[in-house]
Amino acid sequence: HRSSATRTQKRLLFDSSHFAMSRPVLAKIKLMISAGAAKPAPPVGPALGQHGLNIMEFCKAFNAKTADFNSDAPIPVVITAYKDKSFEWEMRTPPVTYFVRKAAGVAGGGQRPG
Questions:
Q1: H/E element holding 34?
Q2: Is the distance from CB of 64 to CB of 77 less than 8 angstroms?
Q3: Dist CA 73 CA 38 (whole Å)
Q4: Model confidence pLDDT, tens digit, residues 14-35
Q5: Full-prediction pTM beyond 0.85?
Q6: Cα 114 to Cα 112: distance, rounded to the nearest angstrom
Q7: Sheet bearing 25-34, strands edge to edge
Q8: Which residues is 78 bridged to in the sheet?
Q9: Which residues contact 107 (CB under 8 A, 6 or more apart)?
């Protein structure tokens, strides 16, 4: 049985120079923060502080990026903390339930399931 990959393809698959070296990840932190309302208080401060990250740097960047959003919009954020105490963060779209409640004009969900 012969492999369908050519020698060049196999060499490219196993050549270690094609794999980028990444920084060692310390933690992935998932938070839900209201747009424009990141503060060093809980939940942001303790979540970032326990990994030694710069809390104010994140708060300023998040608030600047979400300044034009509705202030009641909950924004899911994933923060990747690296061992060198640096971090990257990305915003996700708000949960569908936020948009459904907003369209229906309902302040909150039902108090009882069913």
A1: strand 25-34
A2: no
A3: 12
A4: 444 444 457 899 999 999 999 9
A5: no
A6: 7
A7: 25-34, 74-82, 87-91
A8: 30, 90
A9: 101
